[in-house]
Amino acid sequence: MTRHVGFEHLIDDLKRFAARGFPEIEVRQYLAETLMDQAAFDPYLNYRDEHYTRNLVHKDPDFELLVVCWGRGQKAPIHGHEGELCYARVERGRLRFSNYSMLSEEPIRLSPTGSPVVGGIGFLDGPADLHAVENALEFGANAASLHVYSKPYDECDIYDSESGPRRRVKLAYDSIQGKPVERARG
């Protein structure tokens, strides 16, 4: 049965999971059965024409909670999560998720783990090690997703294709607790 919660409730529940090492099966089940109250979600909706936005809701040493807003046609290339667990759930619109596994580091070779999956509201992807996310133009509307990372990290690897090259990028936020942050994108 799906239930709706606010961020305060969600953060408290995630803290309990963090204290137990983020048990994957339990966290997946919880996130699959829990959606955000839309009124709580609205202050974090921050769309930009030039790129998807990363909007920080909560961050502590154990986990980070983001709302990612995707305009039509925006996508995140194949990227890693520094060995941490990443759960992404669609809250608005539809997104395409493509998951990958690392076949070799030298030379870089990635392999899709199954076909890309399109998910609508409530669809949960993760925990993903390597994935790409896209709000395809044909979906016709903006989208937003909730992301839970078991440990915060400030940089990650981006892969330009399934055979590399790989580059390291610094991560930044477009808003923190609903307040916009000006940032330069590299």
Characterise the protein shown here.
33% of the residues are buried. This protein has one domain (38-177): Sandwich (Jelly Rolls), CATH 2.60.120.10. It has 3 helices and 16 strands. The protein is globular and about 45 Å long. A hairpin with a 6-residue loop joins strand 13 and strand 14. Helix content is 15%, strand content 42%. With 186 residues, it is mainly beta. It has helices at residues 7-19, 24-33, 38-41; strands at 3-5, 34-36, 53-59, 64-70, 75-80, 86-92, 95-104, 109-112, 117-119, 124-125, 130-134, 143-149, 155-159, 166-170, 175-176, 179-180.
Short description:
The protein is mainly beta and 186 residues long. Helices cover 15% and strands 42% of the residues. The longest helix is centred in the first third of the chain and has 13 residues, at 7-19.
CATH architectural group: Sandwich
CATH class: Mainly Beta
Q: Mean pLDDT, nearest integer?
A: 91
Give the CATH superfamily. Jelly Rolls
Total count of strands: 16
Structural domains: how many = 1
Q: Taking Cα atoms only, what radius of gyration do you get, to the nearest Å?
A: 16 Å
N-to-C span = 43 Å
Structural class: mainly beta
Instruction: Give the helix proportion (percent range).
Output: 10-25%
| Secondary structure tally, helices | 3
Query: Major β-sheet, in short?
Result: 7 strands, mixed
Low-confidence spans: pLDDT under 50, at least 5 residues? none
Strand content: 35-45%
Helix and strand succession? EHHEHEEEEEEEEEEEEEE
The side-by-side strand order for the widest beta sheet comes to: 10-6-12-4-3-15-16
Examine the coordinates and then state which fold CATH places here, giving the name of the CATH topology: Jelly Rolls
Judging from the principal axes of the Cα atoms, what is the shape? globular
